[in-house]
Amino acid sequence: MSPKHVIFKKISKDKSVGVYMGKRDFVDRVDSVEPVDGVLLIDPEQLKGKKAYVTLSCAFRYGPDDMDVLGMSFRREIYLCTRQIYPPLQDKDQRILTKVQDKLVRKLGDNAYPFFFEFPDNLPCSVGMQPAPTDVGKHCAVEFEIKAFCAESQDAKVRKRSTVRLMIRKVQYAPEQPGPAPCVKTTRDFLMSDKPLHMEASLEKQTYYHGEPINVLVKINNDSNKNVRNIIITVEQIANVVLYSSDSYLKAVAIEDSGDSVESGAQLKKVYTLLPLLANNRERRGIALDGKLKHEDTNLASSSIIKEGVLKEVLGILVSYRIVVKLIVGGIIGSSEVGVELPFQLMHPKPDTVKERSVESFPSCHNGYTMYLKFKELIEPRKSLCLFCSSVF
User: Fold this and answer.
1) Interatomic CA distance for residues 198 and 186, integer angstroms
2) What DSSP line would sit under 171-213, residue for residue?
3) What is the pLDDT confidence band of residue 137, given thresholds at 50, 70 and 90?
4) Cβ(81)–Cβ(117) under 8 Å?
5) DSSP-assigned beta bridge partners for residue 257
């Protein structure tokens, strides 16, 4: 294998089976999903005539494993597919292997057997809800897992020592052709005022990358006899848990309380910059995060892109984002609010389509996968912001 290529491997305690994979992130392109591929290494002496299986599962977890209320499980299987890998059901000469599989099989020897799985087109992406700092155990999340085990049959009882589990992720990247840049206008009439207040808010584009600053252009024409006392701009994350209930979590992940005012008869045109990062929200419960692998950090959840015709009820957790621009308008009796909403997408760029002018490649903290976006106006020169874990280097 190439020294630059990372291979993920995990072997059972009794050494009977081991899983080798070239990657653990599989891309959902909406119209298709990358197949899951890997190699299973078996030890015939440890198997002692048993069969070896590999399972791909997608589960929605909404509570720790050790919790049980009135016999109700806190883990629901969304998808489960099991295949017998050894003894092989297909002749070796008929197998079509990926480049990584071919190299692994040649390196590991005659006891290495490849496996494939196709994702159904109606499965959610890996996402989870951030627990409180005092919470322990596993919590609400959509998780994918590859499990290999040996047993007398597929339905027979499996020993933990003969089982190996490897977490994987199903991820989405920003679309190559994003939609139009959001722009919204509003006019508010006030009692005892002959003329209204006009406001317009707009973004530069529809899709932003994790770690990228969001510039919000706000235009105000205050022809009314009221004074705008403050302008507050907020990035809100909306996470809808649609599988087991209709729970909805609305969290502000970035706030700009400007303190700007606009007197009666005056105008304002200003750009406000917000930067939604997990680093600024780590202590807050109920924020949706992208699925993470063991010993790795993650980021705010990416926006969900849904294939047409797929039932939302099976997608687990749906995530969306919006910019809320709110004007605090003073009055004789009390204050009132004038607000608009700008929906946008927050996602990762496709690694093979990142432009050199905005992204530079640095030594990675995520197995050669992470790219780093450099913002000279936000961080010190020669330092970079990790798109995955929001760390500054």
Assistant:
1) 6
2) E-B--SS--PPPEEEEEE--TT-SS-EEEEEEES-SEEETT--
3) low
4) yes
5) 232
Which amino acid makes up residue 229? Answer: R
* CB half-sphere exposure, 200, CA atoms < 13 A: 7
Residue showing tokens 């809808």? 240
Core vs surface per residue 380-392: b (16+ CB within 10 A) or e: eeeebbbbbbbee
Give CA–CA dist 236/253, Å, rounded: 6
Instruction: Write the pLDDT tens digit of every residue in 206-252.
Output: 999 999 999 999 999 999 999 999 999 999 999 988 766 567 889 99
Strand partners, 244: none
Spatial CB neighbours of 90, under 8 Å, sequence gap ≥ 6: none
Return the bridge partners of 255, or none. 234
| Kind and range of the H or E run holding 218 | strand 214-222
Reported confidence tier of residue 91, pLDDT bands at 50, 70, 90: low
Helix (H) or strand (E) segment spanning residue 103: helix 99-108
Taking CB atoms within 8 Å and a gap of at least 24, the contacts of 160-166 are 160/13, 161/12, 161/13, 161/14, 162/12, 162/13, 162/14, 162/16, 162/17, 162/50, 163/12, 163/17, 164/10, 164/11, 164/12, 164/17, 164/18, 164/19, 165/10, 166/8, 166/10, 166/19, 166/21, 166/24
What's the whole-model pTM score? 0.78
Q: Are strands 228-241 and 317-329 parallel, antiparallel or unpaired?
A: antiparallel
| 104 DSSP assignment | H
